[in-house]
Input
Amino acid sequence: MAFELEENKGNLFSNKNKKTDKHPDFTGVCRVKVDGMTEAVKLNISGWKRKSKDTGKSYVNLKFDLYGSYKRNANNTNTTNSTPKPEFDDVPF
Output
């Protein structure tokens, strides 16, 4: 039986493949369902350790992408596919 993420929960792990400062310090996956959605959306999570310039407090800056939206480009580095914008044919204005 495969591991199934619960709705509105996720996991974040140290990135063992980090090679440059641009690579995230943490990576993971979550499933998010907001009121009105019929099903939960699975998201990739990336996190970078940061320090506030004002207070000096440490924090983690997060980025979310649709799960599976990573692709390899010609330089063999990760990029994200552009997500198509929804079309609204029935907008009343």
